[in-house]
Design goal:
Pfam family, one (chain A): IF-2B
Structural class of chain B: alpha/beta
Largest interface: A-B, 16 and 15 residues
Order of helices and strands of chain B: HHHHHEHEHEHEEEHEHHEEEH
Strand content of chain B: 5-15%
Largest sheet of chain B: 7 strands, mixed
Shape of chain A: globular
Helix content of chain A: 40-55%
Strand order of the largest sheet of chain A: 3-2-1-4-7-11-12
Oligomer: heterodimer
Radius of gyration of chain A: 26 Å
Shape of chain B: globular
Distance between the termini of chain A: 44 Å
GO biological process, one term (chain A): animal organ development
Order of helices and strands of chain A: HHHHHHHHHHHEHEHEHEEEHEEEEEEH
Radius of gyration of chain B: 20 Å
Family (chain A): Belongs to the eIF-2B alpha/beta/delta subunits family.
Keywords (chain A): Cytoplasm, Initiation factor, Protein biosynthesis
Number of helices of chain B: 12
Strand content of chain A: 5-15%
Organism (chain A): Cyprinus carpio carpio
Chain lengths: 505, 299
């Protein structure tokens, strides 16, 4: 039963059984337990995602679970569900009222029992990871179990400030737990997940493009089951794939925006559209998205950026940003005289890739590690940085080390230019690098020199933790200019661009 | 032909009129007399005319005013199939634009004079007609204040400003450009005009403005800039070097001198971090809001 995808009826049956089981357990336990469970359930209730909690009972917001129920149990009518739920609520309410002591309990039960429709359903942001909260972990495990996606376990001791984030080991990718042939998850998605988790495909643009190409393949192989609509079923098919990919490596902001776009396009397919036509339209949409938002955007950004590069410039770049490399190569083709200083940092050493690409073009380069930054900065006339995402309050989220470079550049009065396409702009707001980040494999920090591997047995030392952060955020005061495909804007104007984009859509 | 028109408007006409307004008036006249057959040809002629105007007067305001004028009138050019009808619509819109910007100085004056309190000591730089209007409004409001004006070499424009202020019975004192740091502790606020407002929220103004801004920041005095909205320009300088040469020097120097490194620039760039507020006819803006307004104006 494991490898086969459960049919809809089987899934419904399983769900009903679980609910029944839970209800029996609840009746056995005393009312104080019920009280506690209800209160605990009502607190995370407003923050539950609207579509994915059919396993939760009465405290769940009525209209949210209605829509969830409607989407996943088309066999049962809405009226039957509502009646069932109301009966359950009444029985629990009466049994609780029989045992209540003071006014507080009735007060606490009333706002829960009365329509939760008044409470707006706050969608839990997918980036809101809470690994050290056991309730959130349980919810995640349940969701993955339902989607038949393997759960990846954390590895090693986590530094306490970052204990709310996942930390995985590269030696145990989630693809190990998938049977061959994979029937639940499309094989190209499995391949993509492996490429992400092993770091074969890295970099914001590369990941998004790979994701979109894989989705094209998935759409190609998709066939609508009978009695289903493509617009709704395909979106549901994609959800387990996305969960699987985020288990392999947390989704980036650019990937999130791309997925949002695809889901919107799919759900906008008119129902009378034939399958082949719909598939062709979706593939064309994906192609145009890649073309407009990534390829043409980088051309536009290069045009603006080249205006800012003058002869005799010494340009500092950090790590390997595909966009910045593209700009420098284009500027070199346009006969601008400049030289480049590439700053690199452990453990990824991405600067070597950038160095290789620039030297191949014939650009004069210098290579330093980030510890030599303040030594090299007096020579520099401009700093060009790439970005992983631009947040709504103007903060720049990029590879760890970027904010350090911006800070020191500001101290030396060197202008800092960030280059970023508009599809990487996200609505999230963050002022520090702790609340939402990514922890990479801590074993990467182990260094082998002269045959000796220091830190090899770091796990045996109880008080030692290895921290391998991937991203950090740079405040807008350190950034002088952001070059996007819409033009050159100051860092504080990111919300304006987001507003304009939303109006367009 | 266009050059003669500009000279007529500026030298012969009202010296109180901003150079950009005079330029736009001559552009409107040019539009009326234009003989081209197609919209594209018309636009090309207009762009050439603007370029010719920039050659006469290389200030930022003429460049920005010209571009905004062109955008304003060509917004609806695609709706009418008939060329003469189109031209009439464009001329109408052009006159509307001209009327709007002629009133802008008054609007700015009305907005800003409330920030001048009774008994205030104001420092200003060089000669700006907008600042004059603001001080005029404040004086008309029966406020007592003193003004310190920098001499503003090499053209001693500050002395002209002092004369105009004396005519309005405002107590004024002329200080050396080098005395800005000395006088800063005495003053309450600094008000300057602008030749151009750039995308980052910074301003381009007569040389010496940047110095004054740095001093006022060090002394924690508010630094206000007053500018009309047609001075908003789509430039984004990163530092002093990044300002294009065609704005730094006057038009005749650009044409005659070979080695610009020997010449002294007439303007400098003040970054937005040193500016407290900008007073424009679009309202009172913080430097970061300028980009928002520019996006609205140009998109």
């Amino acid at each position: 039963n494991e490898g086969k995808e459960l049919t809809k009826e089987e899934k419904q049956r399983l769900r009903k059984e679980k609910k029944q089981h839970k209800k029996n357990k609840k009746d056995d336990k005393g009312p104080p337990e019920k009280e506690k469970e209800k209160e605990k359930a009502s607190v995370p209730a407003p923050s539950k995602p609207a579509t994915q909690s059919p396993a939760h009972k009465a405290p769940a917001p009525v209209h949210a679970s209605e829509s969830a129920a409607a989407a996943e149990k088309p066999a049962k009518s809405k009226a039957e569900l509502r009646a069932e739920r109301r009966a359950r609520q009444d029985s629990e309410r009466t049994s609780k009222q029989g045992k209540k002591e003071g006014g507080q309990q009735s007060a606490s039960s009333k706002p829960k029992a009365t329509p939760n429709e008044l409470q707006p359903v706050v969608k839990r942001l997918p980036e809101h990871v809470q690994v050290d909260d056991p309730a959130a972990l349980k919810k995640l495990a349940k969701k993955l179990e339902r989607q038949q996606v393997p759960l990846r376990s954390d590895y090693g001791y986590k530094v306490s400030l970052f204990s709310h984030l996942h930390q995985y080991s590269r030696k145990s990718p989630p693809t190990l737990q998938i049977s061959i042939p994979a029937t639940v998850i499309h094989p190209s998605i499995v391949r993509l997940g492996l490429q992400y988790s092993q770091g074969i495909i890295a970099g914001s643009n590369a990941r998004s493009v790979a994701l979109l190409h894989t989705f094209k393949q998935v759409i190609q192989d998709y066939s609508t089951p009978p009695n289903e609509e493509l617009s709704r079923d395909l979106v549901n098919k994609l959800s387990p794939y996305i969960s699987f990919l985020s288990q392999c490596r947390p989704l980036s902001a650019s990937m999130g925006n791309a997925i949002k776009y695809i889901k919107k396009e799919i759900s906008n397919i008119p129902s009378q559209c034939k399958e082949e036509e719909a598939k062709g339209k979706l593939q064309a949409c994906i192609d145009s998205y890649i073309n407009e938002k990534i390829i043409l955007a980088s051309e536009a950004i290069s045009k603006y950026a080249i205006e800012k590069i003058s002869d005799g410039d010494v340009i500092l770049v950090y790590g390997c940003s595909s966009l910045v490399n593209h700009i420098l190569c284009k500027a070199f083709e346009k006969q601008r005289k400049f030289r480049v200083i590439v700053v690199d940092s452990r453990p990824r050493l991405e600067g070597r890739e950038a160095l290789r690409r620039l030297v191949k073009k014939g650009i004069r380069c210098t290579y330093v590690l980030i510890s030599a930054l303040s030594y090299i900065l007096p020579e520099v006339s401009k700093v060009f940085l790439g970005a992983h995402a631009l947040l709504a309050n103007g903060y720049v989220m990029s590879r760890v080390g970027t904010s350090q470079i911006a800070l020191v550049a500001k101290a030396y009065n060197v202008p800092v230019l960030v280059c970023c396409e508009t599809y990487k702009f996200c609505e999230r707001v963050q002022t520090d690098s702790f609340v939402s980040n990514e922890l990479d494999d801590p074993d990467d920090l182990i260094v082998t020199r002269n045959g000796k591997s220091h830190l090899e047995n770091w796990q045996t030392v109880k008080s030692l933790g290895l921290l391998n952060l991937v991203y950090d955020v740079t405040p807008p005061d350190f950034v002088d200019l952001v070059i996007t495909d819409l033009g050159m804007i100051p860092c504080t104007s990111v919300p304006v661009v987001l507003r304009v984009k939303n109006v367009d859509q | 032909m266009i050059k003669d028109k500009t000279f007529e408007f500026k030298n012969g006409g009202d010296p109180d009129v901003a150079s950009a307004v005079a330029a736009i008036r001559s552009l409107l006249e040019f539009l009326r007399r234009d003989q081209s057959e197609t919209i594209l040809g018309l636009r090309e002629n207009m762009t050439q005319a603007i370029r010719r105007l920039e050659e006469t007067d290389s200030s930022v305001a003429v460049s920005s005013g010209g571009e905004l004028f062109l955008r304003f009138i060509s917004l609806t050019s695609l709706e009418h199939p008939d060329l003469s009808q189109c031209k009439n619509v464009m001329i109408e819109r052009g006159e509307l634009f001209l009327k709007k910007i002629s009133l802008s100085r008054g609007k700015v004056g009305k907005l800003c004079h409330t920030f001048i309190k009774d008994g205030a000591k104001i420092l200003t730089h060089s000669s700006s007609r907008v600042v004059l209007k603001v001080l005029e409004n404040a004086a008309a409001d029966n406020k007592r204040f003193t003004v310190y004006v920098t001499e503003s070499q090499p053209d001693s424009a500050g002395k002209r400003m002092a004369q105009k202020l004396r005519k309005l019975n405002i107590p004024v004192m002329v200080v050396l450009d080098a005395a800005v740091g000395y006088i800063m502790e005495k003053v309450d606020l600094v008000i300057v005009g602008a030749e151009g407002v750039v995308e980052s929220g910074g301003v381009i103004n007569k040389i010496g403005t940047y110095q004054m801004a740095v001093c006022s920041k060090a002394h924690n005095k508010p630094f206000y800039v007053v500018a009309e909205s047609f001075k908003f320009v789509r430039l984004y300088p990163l530092n002093q070097q990044d300002v294009p040469d065609r704005f730094k020097y006057t038009a005749d120097i650009l044409k005659t001198v070979k080695d610009l490194n020997q010449e002294h620039p007439m303007i400098d760039y003040t970054p937005p971090s040193l500016i407290t507020l900008l007073f424009t006819d679009l309202g009172v803006l913080t430097p970061s809001a300028v980009s928002d307004e520019l996006i609205k104006l140009y998109l």
